[in-house]
Design goal:
Layout lengths: L22 H7 L5 E4 L4 E4 L17 E3 L28 E10 L10 E7 L6 E5 L2 E6 L6 E4 L7 E10 L18 E7 L1 E15 L3 E12 L5 E10 L5 E2 L5 E2 L4 E3 L4 E11 L12 E9 L2 E10 L4 E4 L3 E4 L2 E3 L1 E6 L12 H13 L4 E4 L6 H10 L2 E5 L17 H16 L5 E8 L7 H18 L5 E5 L2 H4 L13 E4 L2 H10 L5 E6 L3 H8 L4 E6 L5 E2 L9 E2 L12 H10 L5 E6 L57 E2 L11 E8 L3 E6 L2 E7 L7 E6 L4 E8 L2 E9 L6 E6 L13 E9 L12 E7 L2 E7 L13 E3 L4 E8 L4 E9 L2 E10 L20
Parallel strand pairs: 23-24, 23-30, 24-25, 25-26, 26-27, 27-28, 28-29, 29-30
Antiparallel strand pairs: 1-10, 2-3, 2-4, 4-9, 5-8, 5-10, 6-7, 6-9, 11-12, 12-17, 13-14, 13-15, 13-16, 13-18, 18-19, 20-21, 21-22, 31-32, 33-34, 33-35, 35-38, 36-37, 36-39, 39-40, 41-42, 42-46, 43-45, 43-47, 44-46, 47-48
Length: 856
């Protein structure tokens, strides 16, 4: 395996947060080297095709007003006969149009002036056509990539009209719910006519030690003026605390560049930083490079590039190291939807979800199976998560009739290049992935040249990180024998843990990682007990919409967390394996799950149509400790039964008559003692393989208590109580003392839980909770984690699911008091009081201050 120097980085924008402004204000702002304007408000939307909608004179007055990001498919309704099928969550598909009228000053609308204006889309789902004043700017089929169009030649002084057509009418086109529409952020950027190219600044650290680090900055620049330009680069550094680094000094490029009209070139600068503050999992500190492009000493463009100083590598014998410290990669795979908000996901939703995953011991995310929104990577940088950034779910052999295989030959190199340039500065990223379960591999004469090209594209644009791939049944397609696997810097494989361990034993120079793994204990133990096995990514981290199998299920229940962000019982077991914080938890096993297959996936590895897929979704296949395995318990058509779940974390069975309950206890302590109504049921030691400690408990109403001890010292306790009649709603909010701001990304989750008089949760899945908010905030969505609930997410009421329901709030004003209520028949109304405040633009650590503020 080639040994690459593993560097760092992160690309985020200049935090100006300029909203669409009057022409006079824009003219004043345009004197700055770079102006960034959020381009997300004032759009109008039509969920249908409309002849001539790209033309400026088209009348869109009857269209719906929307703010971006916007996923129109999440509004539903879901239908059993939807063309998207279960793979797409039975969600609506079709054609949609967006239009926005805006004004620009005359100076920016003159193609011969010294200013250039661009629009940046962080993602449009899917097959987008973008028009400005009736002129087609371009087409992008892949809904997960960012792209940039220059507007300057088509701008007019005063009124301009941008129109965007999105088209996912050809179905099926995805194996999961992809959403629909302009579902990521949009910005306008104005620069000088000599400027840094989109995603053109690359910050690396060729050497990182405890006492010093080398910081290298390279900016690729272009000259769009009519004359040769003499260009240079000026760089300043800011420390994580906001203070200047190397105070009084600026890092200037060692050379100037005489750049002809229309030409590109590189400008570089380098310095050594003493005693660097290194980015780490529990210390995710961010430096910032301030790069300014100068022409004859005058600033023409500038950008701020956050980055982290750290070194990592994969050792073939010992696994993954970060800053010289060994870590197992405790990863989960995540799709792009955020449950009730679809694929237009506010960062507040992701922050809550990642916080809950961190509690379970998760330290890494695989973006399955596509590049994420760029602000998701910003959040991972700030929270200290490791990232596997993945590109494709298919190459030239499709898994659906209308998926990316139709575009791969024409677009894959460009999509990969744009994504790597966009994301290569994020310190969180440790792996690029070229694909997931690629069905080209049974034909190595096709697959090997493709992979060689993709790996070369990754390395050309980022030589600092290794490339992997989620190999699919490699022993069937002989990837370990024909050389395909050894094109990868780190060999990744889905499931079949013994096969990848053998692949390493056969060739010990291979670094290996599990790119997708079931929840079974055997897959966990294989990683735990083999130092060469760097880590694994569970399928999956959070329940997601789509990949649902048969109606009425609309999503997959394979996560550690449910779609509402609350933990599955399987998450408690994973916490006992991956978390170092002392814990103990109890569940009742209500059914025996079937054994897991060798791996999930498709009946035929070369299938090009989803009709070859098994009838049950992938969520059904992980066995062992996996709750909600399809068919494990109850009827999947019964909405009162938790989603085919064999594990429940309560002491309230349906029958209170005498019977025996199978109780499993999860802990990372040395031993557990179980008590029923104060009587000890015995003490058991933790098993060598850390499997669940089990008890056969004669049921009696009351209290079941687990006491976990290490070295005879009690380190954790847990109680489950038999619930009585409904008495009240426990109503809680995430971060209740933190004011809610009107930033689109800043949302607050409130959770309603039905309890009895003593406060014990009632596992109710029929009671309807009505949410309401008064004051400067509104409810934007509701959820309960039930993947068989077809009620709309964009509502103010939701049935409970196992006793819980949530609502998401967003501020509509910058200062005031918000009263939020949760009510249900037969119990008193519960009330919460929250406050709102203006956005704090000066706080770089807030998740809400990113997405609309980046540059390219």
């Amino acid at each position: 395996m080639r040994r690459l120097p593993l560097l760092l980085a992160a690309l985020v924008a200049l935090p100006l947060f300029l909203h669409a402004a009057p022409a006079a204000a824009q003219a004043a702002a345009s004197q700055k080297p770079r102006v960034i304007q959020s381009f997300t408000t004032g759009w109008r939307f039509l969920q249908a095709d409309a002849a001539g909608a790209e033309k400026p004179a088209f009348d869109d007055s009857a269209w719906k007003g929307v703010t971006l990001p916007h996923d129109w498919a999440i509004a539903g309704p879901v239908k059993e006969d939807a063309p998207s099928r279960g793979a797409g969550g039975f969600a609506p598909t079709g054609i949609g149009w967006y239009r926005k009228t805006f004004t620009v000053p005359a100076a920016d609308a003159n193609p011969t002036a010294a200013r250039r204006t661009f629009v940046v889309f962080d993602g449009v789902m899917a097959n987008s056509d973008v028009y400005l004043n009736g002129e087609l700017l371009g087409h992008r089929p892949y809904g997960y990539v960012s792209f940039v169009y220059e507007l300057t030649p088509h701008l007019r002084a005063g009124k301009n009209v941008m129109a965007v057509k999105v088209d996912d009418s050809q179905q099926p086109a995805s194996r999961w719910y992809p959403g629909a529409g302009i579902n990521r952020q949009v910005r306008l950027i104005t620069t000088g006519d000599a400027h840094i190219v989109p995603w053109g600044t690359f910050v690396t650290t060729p050497s990182v030690m405890v006492d010093s680090a080398t910081i290298h900055v390279r900016s690729t620049v272009t000259n769009e003026s009519a004359a040769t330009a003499k260009l240079s680069l000026r760089v300043r550094l800011t420390a994580p605390n906001g203070s200047a680094v190397l105070a009084g000094k600026e890092i200037s490029s060692a050379q100037t560049l005489d750049l002809a009209p229309g030409a590109n070139g590189d400008l570089e600068a380098e310095t050594t930083l003493p005693k660097p503050d290194r980015w780490d999992l529990d210390h995710p500190v961010i430096y910032t490079v301030h790069a300014t492009l100068l022409r004859d000493g005058k600033a023409m463009d500038e950008e701020d590039v956050p980055f982290g100083i750290r070194e990592f590598h994969f050792d073939p014998d010992k696994g993954f190291f970060l800053n010289g410290v060994h870590h197992k990669v405790y990863g989960v795979a995540l799709h792009t939807d955020g449950g009730a908000v679809g694929t237009a996901v506010p960062l507040g939703v992701w922050e809550r979800r990642l916080t809950e995953l961190r509690k379970l011991g998760v330290n890494s995310i695989r973006t399955a199976h596509n590049p994420p929104a760029p602000e998701f990577l910003d959040l991972a940088d700030r929270m200290g998560f490791l990232i596997m950034d993945e590109m494709f779910d298919c190459w030239t052999v499709g898994k659906n009739t209308y998926d990316y295989h139709l575009y791969f030959k024409d677009w894959s190199t460009r999509d990969t290049t744009d994504t790597v340039m966009r994301d290569r500065n994020h310190p969180s990223i440790i792996l690029w992935s070229a694909g997931n379960e690629i069905h080209d591999t049974p034909k190595p004469e096709i697959a090997i040249p493709i992979l060689k090209s993709l790996v070369a594209t990754f390395h050309q644009n980022d030589p600092t990180r290794p490339v992997t791939q989620a190999l699919f049944r490699p022993n069937v397609s002989h990837d370990y024998e024909n050389g395909l696997a050894d094109l990868l810097d780190v060999v990744g494989q889905n499931y079949r843990e013994q096969e990848i361990l053998k692949a390493h034993a056969d060739k010990p120079t291979r670094s290996i990682i599990g790119t997708e793994n079931a929840h079974d204990i055997n897959q966990w133990v294989a990683m735990r007990d083999h130092p060469e096995y760097s880590g694994q990514y569970l399928w999956s981290g959070i329940d997601y919409l789509g990949e649902a199998g048969r109606w009425p299920t609309i999503g997959s229940g394979s996560g550690l967390l449910m779609s509402d962000g609350l933990p599955h019982e399987r998450g408690l077991e994973r916490q006992s394996w991956w978390s170092t914080t002392p814990m103990v938890a109890m569940v009742r096993r209500t059914a025996v799950v079937r054994a897991a297959p060798i791996d999930p996936g498709y009946a035929n590895a070369t299938s090009s149509d989803q009709s070859a897929a098994p009838a049950t979704p992938r969520a059904a296949t992980p066995g062992g400790a996996g709750p909600r395995a399809a068919g494990a318990a109850g009827s999947p058509l019964d909405p009162t039964v938790r989603f085919s779940q064999p594990l429940v974390a309560d002491w309230t069975p349906k029958s209170l008559d005498p019977h025996t309950e199978n109780v499993e206890v999860y802990t990372n302590a040395e031993e557990v003692e179980l008590f029923l109504n104060g009587k000890s049921l015995g003490t058991q030691k933790l098993h060598p393989n850390a499997s669940a400690i089990t008890y056969q408990v004669p049921f009696a109403p009351g209290t079941l208590k687990a006491v976990a001890r290490s070295g005879s010292v009690t380190v954790a306790t847990e109680e489950l109580k038999t619930a009585g009649k409904p008495a009240r709603i426990v109503f809680t909010a995430d971060s209740p003392a933190t004011p809610l701001t009107p930033d689109w990304n800043d949302v607050r989750t409130v959770t309603a839980t039905l309890v009895d008089e003593a406060g014990s949760r009632i596992p109710d899945s029929t009671t309807v909770i009505h949410f309401a908010a008064s004051g400067p905030a509104s409810i934007i969505a509701v959820d309960n984690g039930n993947m068989m609930d077809h009620d709309p997410f964009q509502a103010t009421q939701r049935k409970l699911y196992d006793g819980h329901a949530i609502a998401l709030l967003r501020a509509s004003g910058s200062a005031g008091k918000v009263i939020v209520t949760a009510s249900a028949d037969g119990v008193p109304t519960a009330t919460l009081t929250l406050t709102t405040a203006p956005v704090d633009k000066e706080d770089p650590n807030l998740a809400k201050t990113s997405a609309t503020e980046r540059g390219f």
